[in-house]
Automatic annotation (TrEMBL):
SUPFAM superfamilies: (Trans)glycosidases, beta-Galactosidase/glucuronidase domain. GO terms for molecular function: hydrolase activity, hydrolyzing O-glycosyl compounds. This is Glycoside hydrolase family 2. Gene3D superfamilies: Glycosidases (3.20.20.80), Immunoglobulins (2.60.40.10). Keywords: Hydrolase. The keyword Hydrolase applies. Residues 225-322 form the Exo-beta-D-glucosaminidase Ig-fold domain.
Length: 330
């Protein structure tokens, strides 16, 4: 939408840099190198999908570092975080949480997950799990559970800890994940937080590599490099059902998704499209760019204005290791 297709792929550095403030965000250089840590791409669609992975983990890291160091609970005092540049005020190849055309990115949803009021999170450098409470009340006898799965979706580690969450506080390093020595190069972490009655409160999901962090001036580490083996993920299956409803001005699609396979369904994206298969904007998703464990069920609602549906609507689901699904709604 912002450049000729011939300049999209292969990347035309001159055009990309022009649409990146003369290369200000390093999209054609350092950013491309980071995306290539997920494997070299053969198309702009593949490059964009891997770029969403990069944006998701980068945004999650920003907010979870603040969570860990909230007030005087961490190793430095942090009373708040000012985040500049949520979106683009003009067409750019660097889009942040949503782009100039109002298309939301993975960054938005992984930021929302990181800022949920009760939140379990993983530290890539310490291999520890912490729990954050943003409510002005304490919670006792909650349980945090950490599971690790290898590239074949086999669970290779599980540990839990009971936590008493202080009001507006953090329980840091509640447990440590001990990764098996022979674990696959790429693996996955599932965190769950349950209340004193065993009810699910929140969950979190990470992908991690065995790469070592070699310093701040390198593109290395378990959150940044060594993800080429994601291509070895076996095919998963996700069953999708939906219902539509309307009010005076808005149109809603209530979606239920279930992973019916024995494999992790990795990094799935829902899209609300018009009859020309272009995104209907703005549309509001309660969640997106999510992964589903074997047997896991999830509900998502999409909302948009009725006036956006004059040319029809198509619901689409795509992901890293699932077949694309499309449903004509009207």
């Amino acid at each position: 939408e912002m450049m000729d297709e011939k300049d999209l792929w292969p990347i035309n550095k001159e055009v990309w840099d022009y649409l990146d403030g003369n290369g200000f965000h390093l999209m054609s250089t350092m950013y491309t190198d980071l995306v290539n840590n997920y494997g070299k791409s053969s198309s702009i669609d593949e490059f964009a999908q891997k770029g969403q992975l990069l944006g998701a983990i980068n945004s999650k890291s920003i907010w979870e570092v603040w969570n860990y160091n909230k007030l005087d609970y961490g190793d430095r005092f942090c009373s708040g975080l000012l985040f500049w540049y949520h979106n683009c005020s003009m067409p750019q190849v660097a889009s942040r949480m949503w782009d100039w055309s109002l298309e939301p990115t993975a960054s938005l949803y992984h930021t929302a997950n990181s800022l949920e009021p009760l939140h379990a999170q993983f530290d890539y450098l310490k291999n520890t799990v912490s729990v954050v409470n943003d409510y002005y009340r304490e919670f006792k006898d909650y349980k945090v559970i950490a599971q690790v799965y290898d590239i074949n979706s086999k669970k290779v580690f599980e540990e839990s800890a009971v936590v008493n969450l202080p009001s507006d506080g953090v329980v840091n390093d509640a447990l440590t994940i001990r990764f098996p020595e022979n674990i696959s190069q790429v693996h996955f972490i599932k965190l769950m937080l349950k209340d004193e009655k065993g009810k699910d409160v929140s969950s979190n999901f990470y992908w991690r590599s065995n790469d070592k962090y070699e310093g701040s001036k390198t593109l290395t580490g378990p959150a940044a490099s060594g993800f080429e083996d994601l291509s070895k993920l076996k095919q998963a299956k996700v069953k999708l059902t939906y219902k539509v409803r309307e009010d005076n001005n808005n149109y809603f699609v209530d979606i239920t998704l279930r992973n019916t396979s024995g494999q992790i369904a990795f990094f799935n994206q829902l899209q609300f499209l018009n009859s020309k298969m272009s995104p209907i904007r703005p549309s509001f998703y309660t969640d997106n760019f999510f992964s589903l464990m074997p047997g896991e069920k999830k509900t998502v609602t999409i909302e948009t204005a009725k006036g956006k549906l004059k040319d029809g609507a198509v619901l689409a689901l795509k992901g890293w290791n699932i077949n694309k699904q499309e449903y004509k709604l009207k």
